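Hi L.,

You mentioned the student needs an example of a multi-chain input paired with its predicted structure. This one should do, with 622 residues in total across all chains.
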Amino acid sequence: MFGNLITNFGEAVAVLLFVIGFKDLLLQKNLIKKIVGLNFMDSGIYLFLAEKGYIAGRVAPIVTDGVTEVTKYINPVPSGLVLTGIVVSVSSTALMLALTIRLYERYHTLNMDEISTIIKKGEIE
Amino acid sequence: MEIMRNFPCISIILCMCSAIVSSALPGKWARRLNVTIVLAVITLSGGTLVYSLAKGYETVYKMGRFPAPWGNEIRFGVLEAIMALFFSGILLLSVLGGSKKLKEDIDNFKENLYFVLLDLLLSSLLALIYTNDLFTAYVFVEICTIAACGLIMASERGRAIEAATRYMIYAQIGSGLLLFGLCILYDITGHLLMSNIKTQVIILASSGQYHIPLVISIVFIGTGLAIKSALFPFHAWLPDSYGYSPVPSAAILSSLVSKGYIFLLLKIFYRVFGLNIIQESHLFNILLIFGLAGMIFGSVSAILEQDIRRMIAFSSVAQIGYIYMGFGMGIRSGMVAAVFHIISHAASKSLLFISSAGLTDASGKNKTFKDLTGAAYRNKIAGAAFTTGALSMVGVPLFSGFISKLLFAKAAFETNAMTMVATLVCLAISTILNAVYFLKTVARIYTPATTEYETIRFKDNIPFGVACILFIILNLILGLASDPLVEFINRGLMMFS
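Structure written out for the whole complex:
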């Protein structure tokens, strides 16, 4: 069992990152920490993809020296997925940061619980 | 005839291009362009439906003509065409009904941005409906989420920003789980196209290899999409988002956005895993339990609510519970009922949201029940529309909600004894609870009251009146002539598997 853990060390780290980020996004009260958690979570997934997509000793499929054997190259799709995923997570992070700025301007706090209390009390509509 | 196979691709591209063009147009023209494009999409979807019905089996459309395991594909049959037709139709009616409210809610110079978001939303929904590639689906899920978040906070007033933030947090949790599930699935199967994955999944399931990763990926994808479509207990974002966003946004979010994710989940059940493998993973049982719990809990919360918009929003939680209950039965007739309920709920819930705006307008913009007393007399068309929506939600014969409840009940008899009893009991309780809060509201708006609020006539807001009448007709058609639609759904699901 632990033999698998050592060969899949990278994947284990990736899952750990995902779990840390997931927990932060879900449970942290501070909005900035939530956004950091979101990025942790996404990075965990990208690390997982990158780990799965790499095979030791092989290179990216760019044919320069006439070698066309499949066994010499890795599959380029996971790297493509990582790139697409990064673009997506950058845009959602930007949107969340913009929302955070708006919330801070209105309620003068970054704490989601405090914002809920302010709204419940009806201090700021 | 053969040109019709390009229609799904054209409709997606049209929406995307119009979003780009709209960003440079003034608000009035952006609205006109949006209406034109949605009408075009309705026509194209109708064409797709005719084509698929005539053809009788699914069409695979290669994007860029790259062959199967490498290229990206669109795949469509009868069900996809019906969904696209209804989604674009309801989007058009919701925008029509809420157009006047929208002008009050949104800054003048930002109006075109609202229509940019609407175009993007429609294009992502169409892509979710038509695509055959899981990673493309993920990207469009994200586009849909971001566009929906923009629609929620479009007015930038009151609690809309807080609601949008809450929505975004939950949506990101959902997308994280979905993406991780997809990555695990890609790692164990080596494909991204649904049909190729299915071949590999069947091999894996029969050999027992990678059993745990397969189950984990099923659970992650299921949970991720359930969070995004607000299945109980992940519905915390929903009441605020629907309650404080501009009216057309609320109508579109409740009837289209969450349904888009549910439809994607349905496609994943059929095209990626197959019902047998999902059945073995017990995901259906989990969905059934949470669906049933949502039906009861959503209705109870709705009874306790004092704000009409939030009440309708909580009713959505209950209705989404119904849809997941249909999935959870794990049989064909349950799926048919769930798909029919997706359509019937979309038709009645958007009607309720739009008409509630008419009622609150006639009550000095107050959303509490105290002020709404007698509102149906002050705005007759809104009162009639709200009553229709409420009766349809409760499940009174003649209206669309009745047919979906009938289909659910019929499907329940085909399952095992315990599921059947649980489903029927929850269906009965939920129907009674629905009746309590909807009929209470209808009685309230038809109670005569002496107030100083002014009366709104039909000619004061013609688009609103027209949209309400069209919605009422749609609900009646779905209720009175549901047989062809059920037949089409059946045929579409047959093409799925």
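You could point out the following to them. The mean pLDDT of chain B is 90. Residues 412 and 419 of chain B are 7 Å apart (CA to CA).

Best wishes,
N.
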